[in-house]
Write a structure and sequence with these properties.
The complex is a heterodimer of chains A (614) and B (224).
Chain A (H helix, E strand, L loop, with lengths): L2 H6 L26 E7 L3 H4 L3 H11 L4 E7 L3 H9 L18 E5 L6 H10 L15 E5 L15 E3 L3 H17 L4 H8 L5 E2 L4 E5 L5 E6 L7 E2 L27 E4 L1 E2 L9 H5 L4 E2 L2 H15 L3 E5 L9 H12 L5 E3 L7 H10 L6 E7 L3 H6 L6 H13 L4 E8 L6 H21 L8 E8 L16 H14 L5 E5 L2 H11 L6 H9 L13 H10 L5 H4 L14 E2 L4 H12 L31
Parallel strand pairs in A: 1-2, 1-3, 3-4, 4-5, 9-19, 10-13, 13-14, 15-16, 16-17, 17-18
Antiparallel strand pairs in A: 5-6, 7-8, 11-12
Chain B lengths: L5 E7 L8 H15 L16 E2 L8 E9 L10 H6 L6 E8 L9 E9 L8 H9 L5 E5 L7 E5 L4 E8 L3 E9 L7 H10 L8 E10 L8
Parallel strand pairs in B: 3-10
Antiparallel strand pairs in B: 1-3, 1-4, 2-3, 5-9, 5-10, 6-7, 8-9
Classes of the chains: A alpha/beta (614), B alpha+beta (224).
Chain lengths: 614, 224
């Protein structure tokens, strides 16, 4: 271990975050390695190591001969201070070597509020933050993840964005890098060639012009880059890599358990949900593969807990069979199966009860909106009856705590919808009173509201976010409607969601603001310990950007959106049509009931998704 | 609770010294499951592999002599356990032996320590003498933080707790070796260093390595 590091670790909190050395960590002989890849997660070790995508890419890249992929996470403030004052550059956990010695440095972008950490990590690594300042000897900086669908705010800092699922495209880019190095590496030439790989977006190769009103006039590809970059998907998940043999941290992380991915994509089409549109089409894994991988992962990890993950697990056709297959192995070995992301319906409740040997004391539902009208408008096809029936089932089973998640500020929301949240919570209370198997224990109903953030590639991408004052008024209105002592109301602060709304639909001019925030001390913005709203407001002002232009402005249909060069499969006119349906409170059936022709099927050979459809 | 049947003797070194006591227990629980060795699990709703580590080691300290207790449920030779477990453990944690517990843990009296004080610019003049002088005192009462005591601290005479000590003086290091009380109350060597440097900040080492090298019983015999 670096002797300097040895000196500072005893002084920081949770030093095990910064050491590597975990079970199943991959160490390669540097003499056999020609290309080194740093997989960076712009948040803490505990959050990053809980990310399944990171584990998949770590495994996939390390399967390449001659390529060594290492991990790097954002240091907490105490460690950052020590690194800076002791002149230790940010390093890969496996080798301890400085990130600026790597060939390619990749970031996983799951959340806009992590953007400042990307800059901070580059700087801590001794890598110039701007693409234009980097030379042939500096690493290539790449990024992928959900936020890459609108990566424009980071266009100044990232050389190549990966769109969609990274398992294949990451390796293709690495191969191109090796090829270019053989031929005599030239950074610019490499980036021009990278833009030819499907799913690679090289922002520097696109010229963006603006209209006098500040909106985008046109986006012009240069150097032969494609006018539209289409996201990548893995066609056959059964055949793709899955990390059954994966790093087991020696310190507690957020999701300290086996994670088993049931399927990708979602059939539902909730109109606020970016993941629901961006991860289409639906591609299930087969029951046998899941059971086998789940068992292998348990054996290899020693975990006594497993989570089946997806965007909406009740929609997995073989759910009962997978659960039965896994339970056969797990039950005698005291391994608990968790099944989050279930819909509030009878089938889900019965399967959940089967999995839970111990009574579950707390259950979470996300009706998202308080009235049927608004739930129809956002296409969240959960009825009050579904919810109350599900509540009845869990109350009869002895459940004594229910969490209900809602959003405030959804398009078309009225005061009636806000009050409807309180009414719904009250009905949940009555359901408990009528059906609880143990009234003595009491009930705790927690209502939480978040502030709706319109996201690119959703039917609400054209919407204005409501003002923070209006959000607060609706919070106060809802508070005034809740009189029951068993119902507790929590609401998110508006300021983070406002900044998130600015960044989510931002263009590349926002890079200056992000840089200014970082230069004035901004980092770890998803942590209330660090987030400063005033710092963001000051930064917007300093660089002459009106944040309302991004968060609060309704876009016209004809407007060139800053992410127009990106194609996630779902067509823009489909999204517009869904928006119009929202204003009519007309629901759209899920993909299994009827294919609405959103366009995502074209990403698959033969143009058929979810092939078991009958 | 009845005494546990089996013990492991293991080393903790290198990058593993930063694994905390609680995390180390989780690491062993998983390692047992990975190794396929059947170990007694707790009863109740949230069943898990039962392990217990004697005398928690501070984060950052290394050791040659950690003791973990568990109950083996398989009928396998104990001699197979170290090898199978070591394949399932992270770097830096090595099981040296597995055996039947004979003497209860409360019979542990002392721990053997090697404390290396590193001075980048050479050992300051007078530091070695100062250290010897401290340990040669009749008594030296210090305050030790305590969560239980009403005052928030307890008073402790460290002199009788430090037994059979030596101090080796190098150009850049002072190496303190000692047998130190382990239990009821035990003394963390860092408290000796704090006391030593309290009146002489210039004697504060640039870095200190604490290494536990042996566990002793009542008659200063090696405890297993």
């Amino acid at each position: 271990m670096n002797p300097k590091l040895e000196r500072i670790l005893p002084r920081v909190q949770k030093p095990a975050r910064y050491t590597g050395g975990e079970y199943n960590e991959i160490i390669k002989d540097k003499a056999q390695v020609d290309t080194r890849f740093a997989l960076c997660f712009p948040d803490t070790y505990e959050i990053g190591m809980s990310n399944l995508g990171l584990r998949i890419l770590y495994g996939v890249i390390n399967e390449m001969d001659g390529v060594w992929c290492e991990r790097c996470f954002a240091p907490w403030g105490d460690m950052e201070e020590e690194l800076r004052s002791n002149h230790i550059p940010l390093y890969g956990l496996e080798s301890g070597d400085a990130l600026n010695q790597f060939d390619i440095v990749g970031f996983s972008l799951g959340y806009e509020m992590a953007f400042t950490n990307v800059l901070n990590m580059l700087d801590l690594a001794g890598i110039p933050i701007h693409c234009t300042e980097r030379g042939n000897d500096d690493p290539i900086i790449v990024a992928g993840g959900t936020c890459a669908v609108n990566s424009e705010p980071l266009a100044d800092f990232i050389d190549v964005f990966f769109l969609g699922e990274g398992e294949e495209v990451d390796c293709e880019l690495i191969e191109l890098y090796r090829q270019c190095r053989k031929e005599g590496f030239d950074r610019k030439e490499f980036l021009i060639r990278a833009a030819q790989i499907p799913g690679c977006y090289v922002p520097a190769l696109y010229q963006v012009d603006y209209l006098p009103d500040g909106t985008v006039a046109r986006i012009t590809p240069t150097h032969g880059a494609p006018a539209q970059v289409t996201k990548r998907i893995i066609r056959d998940l059964d055949k793709s890599y899955f990390p059954t043999h994966t790093i087991i941290p020696s310190t507690e992380i957020v999701h300290d358990r086996v994670m088993l991915e049931l399927f990708r994509g979602c059939i539902r089409g909730c109109r606020f949900c970016q993941a629901g549109y961006c991860y289409r089409p639906v591609r299930p894994k087969s029951v046998d593969v899941l059971v086998q991988q789940g068992i292998e992962a348990c054996k290899d990890s020693g975990y006594q807990e497993m989570t089946l993950s997806s965007l909406s697990s009740s929609d997995y056709r073989g759910l009962t069979a997978v659960c039965d297959g896994l339970l056969e192995y797990c039950e005698p070995r005291n391994i608990n199966l968790n099944l989050p992301s279930l819909r509030a319906d009878g089938f889900s409740m019965s399967i959940m009860e089967r999995l839970q040997k111990a009574r579950k004391s707390s259950v979470t539902f996300a009706p998202e909106a308080g009235t049927q009208r608004l739930r129809d408008a956002i296409n969240k096809n959960v009825t009050e009856e579904d919810l109350l029936t599900s509540c009845r089932t869990v109350f009869e089973g002895g459940c004594s705590a229910v969490k209900l998640y809602f959003m405030l500020g959804l398009p078309t929301e009225t005061d009636e919808d806000v009050k409807g949240i309180a009414d719904l919570a009250q009905k949940v209370y009555w359901t408990w009173r009528d059906y609880s198997s143990n009234r003595q224990r009491g009930i705790r109903i927690t209502v939480s509201t978040s502030f709706f953030v319109p996201k690119p590639f959703t039917p609400f991408q054209w919407e204005s976010q409501i003002s923070m004052e209006e959000y607060q008024r609706r919070v106060d209105l809802l508070r005034s409607c809740i009189h029951n002592k068993s119902i507790q109301y929590n609401w998110h602060e508006a300021d983070t969601s406002y900044v998130e709304a600015v960044l989510a639909r931002g263009d590349r001019r926002l890079g200056k603001a992000i840089e200014q925030v970082w230069r004035t001390g901004g980092k770890m913005d998803s942590w209330s310990d660090y987030f400063s709203f005033q710092r963001w407001l000051d930064a917007f002002e300093a660089v002459g950007i009106n944040p309302d232009f991004y968060a609060r402005r309704e876009r016209r249909k004809c407007e060139v959106l800053p992410w127009s060069m990106i194609d996630v499969g779902v067509r823009q006119d489909y999204l517009w049509q869904e928006r119009e349906q929202a204003y009519k409170s007309v629901i759209t059936p899920d993909c299994r009931v009827r294919c609405m022709g959103c366009g995502a099927n074209k990403l698959l050979p033969g143009g058929v998704c979810d092939e078991d459809r009958r | 609770m009845a005494m546990h049947k089996n013990r492991l003797l293991f080393k903790k070194e290198g990058r593993a010294v930063y694994i905390s006591h609680l995390d180390l227990m989780a690491t062993f629980q998983r390692a047992f499951l990975r190794s396929g060795i059947n170990v007694w699990q707790t009863e109740g709703f949230n069943r898990h592999v039962y392990v217990s580590i004697a005398l928690p080691l501070s984060v950052g300290y290394s050791s040659d002599c950690e003791i973990l207790e568990f109950n083996l449920e398989d009928d396998i030779p104990l001699s197979q356990v170290p090898e199978r477990l070591n394949r399932a453990l992270p770097e830096g944690i090595t099981v040296l032996s597995c055996y039947e517990a004979k003497i209860p843990l409360k019979k542990i009296v002392d721990l053997g320590w090697t404390v290396t004080m590193e001075y980048d610019n050479g050992v300051p003049e007078g530091a070695a003498e100062g250290f010897r002088a401290l340990l040669s005192r009749e008594s030296c009462v210090i305050r030790k933080k305590s969560k239980k005591a009403k005052r928030g601290y307890t008073e402790l005479d460290i002199i009788p707790m430090v037994k059979e000590w030596t101090l080796e003086e190098g150009e850049h290091t002072l190496v303190f070796r000692a047998r130190i009380a382990a239990l009821n109350p035990g003394l963390n060597p860092s408290l000796i260093l704090d006391t030593f440097a309290k009146d002489h900040p210039e004697w504060t080492p640039d870095f200190v390595r604490c290494h536990r090298n042996e566990v002793y019983g009542e008659m200063a015999e090696v405890f297993r």
